[in-house]
Amino acid sequence: MRSDAEAEVDVDNSKKLLAAAKLLADATARMVEAAKGAAAYPENEDQQQRLREAAEGLRAVADHIPQLVQGVRGSQAQPEDLSAQLALIIASQNFLQ
Question: 69 near 81, Cβ under 8 Å?
Fold first, then answer.
């Protein structure tokens, strides 16, 4: 995703992709930390809950990434097409929710 962002000509689209990459990296880091805590204390229910929540958060972020990338690519391929721009706006809004 970062390489897509760096290759992107449109600065706004590049920023959106980089922001998505950062959110994905942050969610991944939370997942790794939660997994370490759960592995260190496998009987601790709080650690297990943190791991479940981190996994759900990572899944939620990862589920929106393809739509966002597709929206950016469609917007870039058809910059005058209002439906392509709308698809990017909707994908961005869904990602931020």
Answer: no
